[in-house]
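Trying the structure run again after the queue cleared.
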Amino acid sequence: MSELTHWINGEHVKGTSGRFADVFNPATGEVQAKAPLANADEMAIAVAGASAAQPAWAATNPQRRARVMMRFVALLNRDMDKLAEALSREHGKTLPDAAGDVQRGLEVVEYCIGAPELLKGDYTNNAGPGIDMYSMRQALGVSAGITPFNFPAMIPMWMFAPALACGNSFILKPSERAPSVPLMLAELMKEAGLPDGCLQVVNGDKEAVDAILDDEVVQSIGFVGSTPIAEYIYSRGCANGKRVQCFGGAKNHMIIMPDADMDQAADALVGSGYGAAGERCMAISVAVPVGDDTADRLIAKLLPRIEALKVGPYTSGNDVDYGPVVTGAAKANIEKLVQSGVDQGAKLVVDGRGFELQGYENGFFVGPHLFDNVTKDMDIYKKEIFGPVLSTVRAQTYEEALGLAMDHEYGNGTAIFTRDGDAARDFANRINIGMVGINVPVPVPLAYHTFGGWKKSVFGDLNQHGPDAFKFYTRTKTVTARWPSGIKEGGEFSIPVME
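Done. Tokens:
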């Protein structure tokens, strides 16, 4: 069993707290490594190193910082297979899905190569008599990010790439469940030319998080995870005067109109609902067909697709549809919620309970589940399951379907499948959800737009990546300048005398 490290001041550093977290192989259930859990003293060392390195990095012009990002992109492409394999080994994703995790992070790094343009300020000539006025975007100082297990490559890069491009140093506290890839990314950033101390990776649990929240040097914090923890980090971070953005839970609805292409809708639901074993904040977990006939046709299309899903370890090849969930505790929670759905009266159309994979009986595999006749009062509707479970809530009208999505406390993503442009336009305009797909089941914006939900899916007023990232990781300074008349009036050739 290997013992992982922190990455502090450009090198691997062993933990000194004496506390560790088990890192599992989700396919076998075996502990494959242990990750050190930092205490406040270890975090303070990392913050001090980041603080010492930041001024020189901020003074490096944006074009040179962008060149580091360019080299980092090349290294990510070089090591894509290596990163994907390490990610799959700790998370359980299939290799193509793991490579996609890295790729979507890489695309944000590519966007950050445009930092010289994105950091330009404004200028007003002759704002007043002889007065010019201009603004500058300047780095905050030391920023920090607390990232989840389900995207151990993408979300760290969504945070540290723009933060570094803006001239900040960055403390990354990744999930202790999948810590290897963040450490590998830090190694690649050093190889790309990032100065030591500018990117620190500190593994830890709540003690490390609280140390970040309470450290006066840390100026901003980003978080992705569950809503209760998002609320905690947002409130404590803001109380300590930090700039904070926190992204929480989701319960994403997909509306299926009677005129929708049912094959297209069914394919979209299976891919978005069961991909990555449902461990995505943008997974569709609620299907809302409009009308009983639509619902019946949809269920008929879904059944053979779900029953044909291939569940297995990433080592079984690229034709595996999804792998295990991340831990035994996650599996137990999913199974508990599935049972609650049965107990509360939902119809379990596809029953994945008791699923076992030969040779991997101790792995954290969960079979696919499909519920029909789910109602708003059921736990499987109200709670984020984060597993391969799709709930069908039948609506009789478009307005009822729209209301279901609008009334739910989460507002991360949603989609509508229809051939009717008017219905799609109305849906996009009225829905109170941050990311909307029209015949697109997982509407994750590309890197040059921004990612973020509404309602209890987000705490803070700026989204991730895109232009908002450069606003979040900088503050604006405005300068008003007036220069007195000087030698422009001409030279003086006489010896000056007192008057």
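The chain has a mean pLDDT of 96. Worth checking whether this holds up in the mutant runs.
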